[in-house]
Every structure is written in C-alpha cells, then in structure tokens.
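Postdoc handover notes: sequence design on the structure in folder B. Input tokens:
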C-alpha cells in the first residue's frame, strides 16, 4: 500500500498538519500495544481484544477532546458510535484494512457524521472535505506473505491510516499512513556531560628500588 498513489489529505484541509496526525497515531498505537500486552490470559480471545481496543480507543479520543493543548482534535459525538474531528475533518475509527475492509458498514455515514458534513456545504473552503467519507484506520500488520516456497515479512507493526473515500463509489481518493509504531525506544536522559573531575597522580616506585643512600 503506497499512500503516494493517492491524493494527500492536507489538500482538503488547510488547517490539517502532518504533526497532528503523527501525534495522534502515536497515541492510538500506544493504546493498541498496551492492550495487546495486557490481554494475554487464557480467558482472552479476539472478542475480548477487539472490544477492549474499541473501548479504550473511544476513551482516548474523549480524553484528547478535553486536552486544551490539542484544540485540533474534538469529539462531536461521544456516543458508542463516536465521531471525532481532526481540525475540520469528521472521522470514524475502525480496526480494519483500508484497502479491503471487512466491515462494510464503515462506508456508511452515521447521523452525526452526515450532520457535520452538511454544515460544511455552506463553507466554500470545506466543500472538498464534505465530498469524501473520512475514516481513521488501525491497520493490523500483514506479517507474512506466501510467495511460492518463500515467506516474506511485509510489516512489523500496526499502523494508523487516514483515508478519504468517494462517497458514491467508495474508491480511495486521499490517504495518509503513519510511519511510526508504538514500540519502546531508547531516549537520552541527560544531554549534558558530567563535569570532569581532577585525578591525583600517585608516584609509584618500582619494586626492588626502595634503597636510600645505598642501604638495603
């Protein structure tokens, strides 16, 4: 999947910045990683994992909505079918494959999404945004691809993908894909080197040379 094949979401919203999407993706991927690491008991399965990721992701967006340092993200509908907005772009969040989604319902706009997009129709600069259905995907890693007798690793980690679909044909028009993953990385704690300490040099006499004035 090559995002460069499609248009950039930044073309549709002048307020949207890539740094916003990078920061949001890092938060989302951290939730996925923490959930995967936590739900490893014998009583966990795909159902407990998927429902937990859904619930935690919703809580993440509700928390970001309250963060005054991130005015670019809001939640216009806090229901279970929640609708966040990234700048002026209303999105819905799915854990699926953006190129071939299993959940066909993700193509349909819910009532809140339709209302938000209808409000844009009178705003000339947002007409392009309203013509697309925007989806924010948590994409699972496609770890193995079978090619003859060989197995190739394709991706190592989950990704976050923002996609704008044509509302009539469901064709992908715009796409952005995260490059970072929620893995622990090493960070430099102290950027300043400690001050050098003076070292006292000690005089060392060779063994057998401890005579004074010829006396042994």
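Designed sequence:
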């Amino acid at each position: 999947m090559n995002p460069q094949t499609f248009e950039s979401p930044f073309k549709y919203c002048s307020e949207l910045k890539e740094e916003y999407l990078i920061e949001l993706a890092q938060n989302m991927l951290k939730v996925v990683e923490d959930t995967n690491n936590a739900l490893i008991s014998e009583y966990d399965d795909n159902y407990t994992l998927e429902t937990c990721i859904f619930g935690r992701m919703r809580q993440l967006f509700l928390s970001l909505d309250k963060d005054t340092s991130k005015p670019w993200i809001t939640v216009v509908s806090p229901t279970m079918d929640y609708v966040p907005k990234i700048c002026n772009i209303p999105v819905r969040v799915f854990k699926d494959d953006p190129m071939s989604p299993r959940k066909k319902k993700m193509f349909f706009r819910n009532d809140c999404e339709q209302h938000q997009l209808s409000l844009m129709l009178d705003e000339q600069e947002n007409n392009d945004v309203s013509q697309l259905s925007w989806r924010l995907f948590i994409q699972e890693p496609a770890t193995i691809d079978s090619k003859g007798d060989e197995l190739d690793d394709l991706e190592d980690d989950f990704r976050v993908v923002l996609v704008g679909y044509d509302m009539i044909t469901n064709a992908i028009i715009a796409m952005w894909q995260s490059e970072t993953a929620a893995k622990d990385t090493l960070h430099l704690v102290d950027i300043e080197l400690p001050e050098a300490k003076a070292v006292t040099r000690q005089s060392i006499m060779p063994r057998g040379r401890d005579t004074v004035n010829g006396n042994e």
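Context for whoever picks this up: The two ends are 86 Å apart (CA to CA). Don't rerun without checking with the PI first.
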